[in-house]
Design a protein that fits this description.
single chain, six-stranded mixed beta sheet, 7 helices, alpha+beta
C-alpha cells in the first residue's frame, strides 16, 4: 500500500498539504499480530472529495496498478494478487489520527499506521455506525483486544480528540459526524 501513497505523492502535487494514514484492520493487525488477518486496506485521507476523487485520480494514471471492479477498488500487488483498498469517507471520522503524515513530505518513511489509542477510539466509534451486527461485533472485539493490550502497558492515555467521540451515544455520534461534517482535517 505504500505504492498507493507514493502515487498520490508523486503524481498529484495538489494533495501535498493533505494527510493520510492506514486505519482499520491492517493497523489492528500491525499492533496485534496474533489477531485476525484482513483482506483489505483502509486508507484514511484528508483529500477533499475522497473517496471518489482519489479513485478517479489513481485510475487515470497510465499503467496504474489500480482497477475498479463493481463496488471494489483494487490494487494489483506486484506478485499478482488483487488487494481491496477502501478510502472511508471523512464524515465517519471525528479526528485525524495522530500518526497521519502529510503527503507533501519529502519521503514517507513507511506506511503511516494509526496508533493503538487512535484505533481504540476509531473502533469504538465505527462499531456503532456499522450496518450489520457481524461488523459491529468484529469492531467491538477489536476495541476490546486493543484496550486489553493498552491496559497491559498501563493506563490508557487518549488525546483531547479521542474521548469526545467514545463517550457519545450512537445517535449523538451520527448526528455529530453527519451534521457539520468531520473536523478531522482541520489539523
Amino acid at each position: 500500500m505504500k505504492a498507493t501513497i507514493k502515487e498520490l505523492q508523486e503524481k498529484f502535487p495538489e494533495f501535498s498539504n493533505t494527510y493520510t494514514i492506514v486505519i482499520g484492520d491492517l493497523s489492528v493487525w500491525k499492533h496485534l499480530p496474533k489477531g485476525r488477518r484482513t483482506a483489505d486496506v483502509d486508507l484514511l485521507t484528508s483529500i477533499p472529495g475522497a473517496p471518489q476523487i482519489v479513485k478517479q485520480k489513481l485510475l487515470g494514471v497510465p499503467g496504474t496498478p489500480f482497477t475498479q471492479q463493481s463496488q471494489y477498488f483494487l490494487w494489483r500487488h506486484p506478485e499478482g494478487k488483487n488487494i481491496q483498498v477502501d478510502f472511508p469517507p471523512s464524515w465517519q471520522f471525528p479526528f485525524l489520527p495522530s500518526g497521519a503524515l502529510r503527503l507533501g513530505q519529502d519521503r514517507l518513511p513507511d506506511l503511516p499506521h494509526a496508533t493503538p489509542e487512535d484505533l481504540l477510539a476509531l473502533k469504538i466509534n465505527s462499531s456503532g455506525l456499522r450496518a450489520t451486527i457481524e461488523k459491529r461485533t468484529v469492531d467491538a472485539a477489536d476495541a476490546d483486544a486493543l484496550a486489553e493490550m493498552l491496559l497491559g502497558r498501563g493506563p490508557i492515555v487518549l488525546t483531547a480528540e479521542e474521548p469526545s467521540i467514545i463517550f457519545l451515544s450512537e445517535a449523538e455520534r451520527i448526528t455529530l459526524l453527519r451534521g457539520a461534517g468531520s473536523t478531522y482535517n482541520a489539523r
